[in-house]
Fold each of these.
Amino acid sequence: MQPNQFKVDVASKLKIVSLVSVGKHPQSGRVRRSDQDSRAVELGLKLTGDNRSGESLTVLHAGDPREQSLRSYAGMGLKSVRVLQLDPSADAILPLGQHLLQCGADIVLTGVRAESGESSGMVPYQLAEKLGWPIVPRVANIVSVEGGVAEVLQALPRGQRRSVMVQLPFIASVDSAAPEARQSAFGPASRALMDIEVVSASVDMTRESWEEVPARKRPKRLKVVKAKTAAERFKAATAKSQGEGGKVMKNESAVEQAQAIFDLLKEEGVLR
Amino acid sequence: MSDHNSNDVLRRDPRAEWIARNRLHPLHGTVASSETAEVRGPSGLLRKNPHKVGFIGPNGIKRIDRLKGNAAATGKGRRSGAAKDVQLPLHKVENPDFYIVVVPDMVGGRLTAHDKDIIGQAHKLISGIDGNGAVLAVCFGQSKEEHFDTAGVDRLLLLDDESYEGYCPEQRLEALVQVESAYKPQFWLFPDSVNGGSDLGSRLAARIGERPAVQVWQADNQTVVCRGAGGTTDITRNTPRLLMLAEECADPIDETRHEAQSVTLDAAPVVVAQLRDRGQVAVDPNAISLAEAEFILSAGNGIHNWDQFHSAASVLGATEGASRVAVDDGFMPRFRQVGATGTWVTARIYLAVGISGAIQHMQGIGQCDKVIAINTDAGCDMVKRAALSVIGDSEAILGELIKLAEDFRAQQSAGGDRDAA
C-alpha cells in the first residue's frame, strides 16, 4: 500500500472525475472539505500522475458555486473546479449522470457518505444504476489500470483489504482508509477557476416533509436481568463471563493438541 | 354437667407437646404433621408457625429453603448450565399474510448481534401491522448458525451455492430482486454495517427505485428516526419500504422460539459479474490496531521462548497481544497489553498462550467470540472461558503449531504457483 506503486499505462487518456460535496466538521459543525471526498480527490490526483496540472482529473460539484469549502478542494493543487449550479435542495442525480456521460469519465470517485444533508450514501449507487456501470464500495486504493481493467483494493472491517478487478468505466466510493488528503494551500485555492454550468433540476419534494433536528444522544441499552429470585439477580450481577464449557484436551500428545488448534483456526477461516 | 364441662375445658397432652417441641424425638414427625390447616389469629391474620418452616437436614439441623425451589439452578459446576436450558414457547406463523425480509450480514457464517437486533426490529414492525406477518431471513454463503429459531427467524432462505461464495454483490442483488418479485415484502431490513449490509441494501434500493432510510435507530410503521449529515442530525420521516438500521435499534428476540422453516427460491439467473473477486490480500497483522484485529495470539507468563512466540504469530498471520505480566516484564510493548488497563479487544479468535486469566484480562476479552487456551493449569479461569483448551507445555505445542502452519503455507504457495502457471 505504498502511495506511488500503481501502474497506469493509459493515464494520458484516462479520465477521472471526483465528485465532491460540502463537508461539515463533526465537532464544531463548521463548513469544511469533506474528509472522504478530499481523499477521493487525493486518489484522483495520484492516479493522474501527480503532475500538478491535474488535466485528466475533473473535480465536480453539484450545488452552489459560491460555497467556500470548494476552494479548499481547489487548494489541493487544482486549476479549476467544475460546478453544476443548481439549488442545494434539488436532486443532483440526473444532471450529474448526464454530465458524466457527456464528459466520458472512466473512473468516478466519491466519498462513502456525505457529511451534510441526508448523507445516505446513495449517490454512487444511483449513478451506477442509471449509467449501468459497476460500483466498487469502500475503496482504499486503486493499484493499477491496465487494458481497460482496474485493480482496486477494497477496505474491509478489521483492517483487512480485498483485491477486486473491475472493468472501466466504473464508480468507486472512497473509504476513510484511503491515503490521507494533502494539505490545502490558500493561494492556489483563491486562484482556482470555478467552471460553472447552470443546470436545471427538479426540487426534492419528499424531503420537505422531513423534520430535521440536531442529533439526540442515543439511549444506552440497559442490561435487563430477567431473574426471578434474589439469588439469580445476585448471580447475574457478579458472575464472570464464562463459556458453556469447551473442549479440554489434557492427555493427548502435543502433536494432536496442535492439530486440534490448527483445525479450529482453519474452520473459522482466520488462516489465509 | 360434667359432659358439658369436658367440652369446654381444653385438655392438654403434655407428652404430645413435649414430642412436638423435641424435633429429635422419633415420633416428632407424626405429631408435627398432624396440624396442616392454616391458622388464623384473632384479627384474621394468617399465622405462620416459624417452627414448622423448612425441613430437617441430614445432620438434624433445620434447613429453610428461601430460594423457593430454585436452588438447583444455582448449583455449582458445568452441569447447571445445561440443566437450565428451558424450551421457549414456539411462535408459529401459518400462511403468512405478508413478509418482512431481513438480510443479515452473517459474519463468519453466524448471526451477529447487529443481525439479531434487526430481526427483533422486524418482529416489532410485524406487531404493529394487522394480520399474520413472518420474518424471512435471506442468508448468503455457508452458514454455521445453529440458532436461527431462537433468534426469531420464521422463514429461512439459505442461498449457499458456490455462486454466492466470496464477494459477489451483483449475484446476491439478483437473488434479492427475485425475492422482491416472489414475496412482495412489506419491509426490507438491512444492517447498516461495513460488513456488506449497507452495500447490498443500497444496491437493492437503487435497483427497485426505493428511497431508503439509512442509519435508522428508531423505527415503527409510521415514522423512523435516522441520523443524517454524518451523524450530527436526526431526521424524522415516514417509514420507507427499505430500511438500513443502526446497531441496537431494537432488542433481540429472547422469549420465543420460531420455526426457521426453510424456503427455496427459483434459481436466480447467473449474472455476468463486472466485479471479479481476487480474494483478500495479505496485510501486516501487526499494523492492524489491537482493538479491531480479527485474530490475536496473546502471550502471558507461561511463555519462555519469545522468539518462538513471535515466529508463531507471523506464520499464523495473527496480531500479537500480551497480558499485563508479559508487558511489565518488558517482553512486549505496553500498547500490546490486553485487558482492563490495556486494550479491550474484539477479536473473533483469541489464542491465549500461558495466560491463566486474571479478571482484568477476562474483561478485556469479553467481546471475543472464540477463545483458545494453551495452559499448564487445567483449572484456571481462561480454560473455563475457552472453547478449546489444551493442557500442556506451551513451547512444545507452539512448535507443533508452527510446523503445521508452515506446511499449510507451503501447500498454499505451491497451489498458487500452479494456478499462475
Amino acid sequence: MTTEPRKLKLPARRDLRTRRSVIVIDRLADGIIRVGGLCVIVAVFAIMLYLAQMVVPLFTGGGVTAEFARTTSAVPAGPTIVDRLDDYRTLAIRIDDGGGVSAFHLATGTPVEVPQLDFGGNRATAVARTLSGDDLAFGFADGTVRFARLDIKVAILAEDRVPAGLARLDARDRSDGTAVYSSLPGAQVRRLSVAVDIGSPVTIGAGVPIVAIDLRKGGAAERPTTVFATVDGNGIARLSQAETRTNLLTGQARTTTGTTVLPALPPSLSIVAVAITDKADQFYAADRGGMVYRFDTRDFAAPRLVEAVQLVPSGATLTTFAFLNGEQSLVVGSSAGTVDVYFRLPRADARTQDGFALVRAHAMAPHAGPVTLMSMSQRSKMLATADAGGHVWIRHSTSNQTLLKLPPAAGEGSAYTALMLAPRDDGVLAAAGGRYHAWAVDIPHPETTLRTIFGKVWYEGYGEPVYTWQSSAGTDSFEPKFSLVPLIFGTFKATLYSLLFAVPIALGAAIYTSEFTHHRVRATVKPAMEMMASLPSVVLGFIAALILAPFVETWLAAVVAAAIAIPFGLLAAAYLWQLLPAEWALRHGGALKFLLMFATIGAAVGLAILCGPLVEYLLFAGDVMAWANGDIGGEGPFMLVLLAVPSFFMVEAAFTRSLGDRFHARQRGLPRHQAGLLDIGRWLAVALASLLLAYVLGLGLAAIGLGARGGIVDTYTQRNTLVVGFAMGFAVIPIVYTIAEDALSAVPEHLRAASLACGASAWQTAVSVILPTALSGVFAAVMVGMGRAVGETMIVVMAAGNTPLIEMNVFNGLRALSANIAVELPEAVRDGTLYRLLFLAALVLFAVTFAVNTVAEVIRLRFRRRAAQL
Amino acid sequence: MGRLILPAATTIVCGILALAAANAQQVDPKLASYQTVSGVSGNLKSIGSDTLNNLMTLWAEGFQQRYSNVKIEIEGKGSSTAPPALIAGTAQFGPMSRPMKAAETDQFEKKFGYKPMAVRGAIDALAVFVHKDNPIQCLTLQQVDAVFSKTRKGGVDKDVTNWSQLGLTETFADKPISLYGRNSASGTYGYFKEVALFNGDYKDSVKEQPGSSTVVQGVASDKFAIGYSGIGYKTADVRTVPIAAKAGATCHDASEEATYSGDYPLARLLYIYVNINPNQKIDPLRGEFIKFVYSKQGQAATLKDGYFPITAPIASQDLKELGLAN
C-alpha cells in the first residue's frame, strides 16, 4: 500500500481580524481578573489591618475619662481609718477611729446618713479590712478586738417602685438622705444603702493595746475560712484560723478553729503593719525602720520566726506595707519614695530557716517624695500609690509599669490622708479632710506591654522571670500570664518535626512515581495520595490522640526500630534485586516489583516489632521511657542511630569522590550478577564505615555535652510531638507530594531523554538532571507543606497535649498558636485582654505565614531563573 | 398517626417514671414532684460548663418529654464560655462548675444593671483519677498540689514528678507521672486550681484536654497518668483517688456521704446561671425548666449522670430567691 503525500487544506480566505466578540470577552476577562486580583490583595491587607487595629489597644495605656475636685461636709470627727467606695463609684464611705461612719455622694459631695459603729466610747488603735472592705476588724487599747461588717446593699428596683419625694443629686442620682437611687437604662433604678454590724469585743491580750491587726476571708464558697492576726504592745503576735464546713444534708455548719501565739518580737519595735495569707501559713510583721519579720506558721503547733530582713533603703522609713490581691506579692513603700514588690521564693542561698527568702521582684518607678498611701485593686494586680506632694500614680505589678500619673489639682499639693482605688479599677478617690479629688479612669489592658508578651516576666511565686502562657482561672486573684513565646515556639516545633517526617517521604514518593514507575501506576497513585489530603484533620487528630498515641507509647522501641529497619530493608531489597537476571528483572519490573516493595516494608515492620525489645536493650539500656527520662543508660547508642543517616551520606560522598570512578571502571567489566554482588559488598562496607563514623561522632558530641538527651529527647509523655509529627505527616505528605510530583513531571522530556541517552542511569538522571531543574517547584511544594503545618489546628489540639512548653523534646507535647486560638476563643470576653491577645496570636500567625511565603517565593523565583537557562 | 404515637409516648413516659421511681430513694423525698403546666413552649439555649453537659442534656430530655413544643440546644465548652454567652444573650442558661468571678459579674452588670442569678443544680465531687491498675491509696491536697503545680503553694517543698515519690513500687517505681487536665475555659480547671493548687499555677506539662471525657479517656489509656474531672465522667477504666485535706487528716473517697458532709475536700456545687430581671416575673419557659431541675424527677437525673442531688432546703431557698416558690 502506498501512501500519497497528504495535502494540507488551508482555508480559502483567512480572516486576519480578530472577531469583535473575542476582543470584548478578552477585555472583560482581563478587567475581571485584574479587579479580582486587586480585591484579593485589598482583602488580605484589610484582614491584616483589622487584626492590627484589634491588637493596638493592648499597647496603649489608659486614660482619665473624668476628673473633679470637691469638698464635702461629711467629714468624720476623728482620723479616717477605713475608706470604702462602692462598686459603682456612687458612694464614698469613711470610718474614723471612734466608730463614726460618714458617707457622701461622690459626684456632688452631698452627705448621706449612714448607721454608726458602736465602739463603746473606745478609740481603735489598729484596723484591718479584707480587700473588698466588707469585713473589718478593729483593735483597741484594752487588748480587745471587734469584728464588723460594712455592707453596701444594692437593690434593683423598677422605676415605678421608687419612693416619691427624693432630692435630686445630679442628672443620674437621687437621694432620700439615707440611700442613693441611680437611674439605669431600661427604666431601672439601683438603690444603694449602707448597713453596718459590729460584734462584741473579743479579748486577745488583756490590757495590752493592739498595735496591728490583719484579717482575711478565703477558701472556696463551700468551705469559707477566716484568718486574723494581731500584734500587741508587748510584741506578742497571735494568729487564728477558722474553717467552716456545712453538711448539705443536715444544714449543720461545723467550724474548726486554731490559734497560735508566735515567738515574741523584740519589744522595742514599732510595728506598722502585719500581713497574713488566707491559708494562715505565713505571717509578716513590718517595723517602721523597714525590718520585716516573717514567720512560718504552716504548723500551728510550732510557729517559728524564719526571716528578718531590711526592705527599705537605709535612712528611710517604711510607710506602707500590704499584700497585693492574692497574697503573694508584698508591696513595700518607703519615705524615700520607693515602691517595691517582694515575693517569698525558695532560694538555695537563702540564709533563712526554711530555705525561702523575700526577693525583690519588681522595683517600681519611685515617687519624688515619701510614699504615704497605697490602695490595692480587688480585681487585678493593679495598685495606686500617693506621695506627700499629692501625686497619685496608678501602677501594675505584673507589667511593672506606671499606667497613669495623676497630678494634684491646681493650687493643691499637700498630702492626702485617704486613697481608694475603685473596686472595679475604674476610678481613684484621694481625700484629705473635707477636700477630695476623684478621677474616673479607663485602663482596659494594664497587664500587657510588648515586654510582657514577648519578653520574660517575673510572675508571683516564680523563681525567676520566665516565658509562660496561662491565660485565665476561676478567681479574681489570678495573675494572667500572657507570653506568646511558648506558643510561637510550639508552632515551629510542630512544623519542624512534622516536616522532618513528611518531606523525605513525600519527595521520595514524588521522585519515585515521576521517574521510576509506569505512567499508569502514577495515574493510580497520584489521585490516591490526593484522596489522603481530603481526610479531615479532626479525624486525623482523633485517631492520633486515641489510637496512635497509646500505640506509639506501647511500641516506642519498635517505632524507633522501624525507622531504621524500613529504609535499611528497602535498600537491601534494592541491592538484592540487582542480582536477578536482567531479563527476568525487566519483565517483572512492574507489578511484581511493586508487590515485593510492599512485602519488604511489611517484613521490615514485622522485624521491627520482633526486634523492638532487642533494640530497647541495645540502645536504651532496656527501658526506653526510663532512658529518655535520663535514669539509665548512656548517650552513645542512640546518638549512633541518630547520626547514622548523615554519616552514611558523608561516607558515600567521600567514597564517590575518591574511589568512585575506579570502582565503576572495575564494575563495568564484570557480568551482571557479579557486579551486583560487588555493589552489595560496597554498600555494606559503606554502611559499616558510616556506623563507625556515627559512633565516633556520637561519642564526641556527647562528650562535649551535645547529647540528644535533655535536648531533643527527654521524659516521655503520651501526647507528644512524635505522634503529632506522624499525624500531621498524613496531612502534609499528600500536598507536598502532589505539587512536587507535578513539578518533576513538568521537566521537559528532552532533558530526560538526553541524560538517559548519554548513559546515565534513571537514578542519576533523577538526582542530577530532573531534580535541579524542578527545584523551584519542589521547593514550593515544601513551603506549601510548611504553610499547612504552621496553620494546622485540629491535629495539634487533639494530639499535642496543649502544653505550653519551650523544649525541643520530641517526646513531649506543645501548644501551637492556632490550637491556642481554637481552644481559648470561646471563653474570651469580647474586647477583653485575652480576646485581643488571641487576635495578636492570629496576627503573629499571619505574619509568620506571610514571611515564610515571601521568602519561599523569592527563593523559588531565583531557582526558576536558573532553571530557565537550561 | 396520633394513635401510633400515643402508645409509644406512654411507654416512654412510663419508663421514665419507673426510672425516676427506682432512683427516688436517694433523692431528697422532700423535693417537690414536678407538675406539668400548660402554655409552655419556645426555644432555649444553654452554653457553658462541660462538666454539666450531660446533666443539662438529661434535664432537657426530661423537660422536652413533658413539653413537646420546647426545643433546647446545649453547648458545653467550659464554664468560662457561659458569662459571655449570657451577656451577649445567645444563651438563656449558663451552666458553670464554679461560681462566677467578680470580673464576670461586672461585665454582666454593665450590660443589664442587675447581677445574674445562680441556680444550684447539683453537687459534684471533683475527682482525681488514676489508671485502674494504679494502686495509690490516698493523696493529701498538698501532694496533689506538688504533682500538678509549679508554684506549690500548698507548702510541699519538693516537686513531685514520679510515682516513687508518692510511695508506689514495682511497675510504678520511678515512672514519671503523666498529667491530664482541662483547658482554662473550664470551671473545673479554675476550681481545681483554687482548691487543690491553693491558687497556684499548673505545670506547663499538664496536658490540657478540651473536655472532661477526654481527660478520663487520657487517664484510661495512659497507665502512669493522673487527671481530674467531675465525678460524673468516671468510667470503669479509671479509679478515683481518696483525698485528705491535709497531712494526717483522714482520707475520703469521692463518696456520697463524704461529699454531703463536706469531708471530701473537693466537693462543690454546680451552678446554672440565669439572666433574671429582679423587677419582672420570670417567663414560664425558663421558670418551668428551673422548677423541673429542682423537682424529684430533675434531681433523679443527677444520680443517673453520676452526680449527687441537691437537698430540699437548697432547692426551696433558691426557688424563693428566684421568685418561683409557690
